[in-house]
Amino acid sequence: MEVLIKYDSGTRFTATCGDYTVSTGRGEDGNAGRDGMYPADLFTAAIGMCVGGYVAAYCGHHDIPHESMTISVDRETAKAPSRTTRVDVRIELPLEVSEKDAKAILQVADRCHITNSIRKSVEVVCSLATRDEE
Fold it and tell me: Any bridge partners for residue 73, and if so which?
């Protein structure tokens, strides 16, 4: 599915995919209510949310309570070129799980689509198009 990103102002962009939208960056209009996470933070959040989806599905199928699960994600960065160099994901469940379940949950977390895309060096190809504005 295609995601369409439109420029708003400043460093603010809005991405639309189907019926869903998300905004990133800061605008020049001073309307903080329309500001959003910086793209690198959204990238980090996407990893945590993806991992969470896989873990929630596993827990649901194995009757492991997970309704108050939280996931914290921290990232390390580098410059030249600007990039994320490490992402640490901490999954917190509302109760202790067996060693067997803990191992299985971590294996499932490692199946996250976004994480696997990064690990397998996703190729990003940029192209430039222009359009006549009327």
Answer: 89
The CATH number of 38-126 is: 3.30.300.20
Pairing between β-strand 20-24 and β-strand 12-17 as defined by DSSP bridges: antiparallel
Entry pTM: 0.87
pLDDT digits (tens, 9 = 90+) for 1-42: 799 999 999 999 999 999 999 999 988 887 887 788 999 999
Q: Using CA atoms in the order 26, 8, 6, 129, what is the torsion angle rounded to 10 degrees? A: -110
Cβ within 8 Å of residue 3, ≥6 positions away: 15, 16, 17
Domains in the chain: boundaries: 1-36, 38-126
* DSSP bridge partners of 13: 7, 24
**Tens digits of per-residue pLDDT, 109-125?**
999 999 999 999 889 99
CB of 36 closer than 8 Å to CB of 45 = no
Q: Give the Cα separation of 114 and 51 in Å (integer).
A: 8
